[in-house]
Sequence to fold (111 residues):
Amino acid sequence: FGVIDKEYGHTQGDIILKEVGMLLKDHAPSDTYLCRFGGDEFVVLTPYKLDKCRLLAENLIKAIETHIFSNQLTITAAVGISGGRRREERRIMEVDTVIDLINLASLASTK
Fold:
């Protein structure tokens, strides 16, 4: 979004972020939780196993990459997936676990 902000302005970047949010909302299943997280990142929290998460990610990427945004722009998306079962129960707050998972997914999206 840095390129969009520099070339088209922050107002246009904000409009596109809203459009991305609406696309995600329209394409995310009802049993998921969706939010914007830091700048140009979004979180889709699911109860799914890895295979279903990958399929959902592919569908969300396709929805974003085939959409014509404001100013006739097309954009791409990177997705990171994190999760898994723990062998031992952690004695930390669930919020800390969610924050750790979001951070891992964010790092994975840059790979």
User: Anything to note?
Assistant: The CA atoms of residues 18 and 83 lie 27 Å apart.
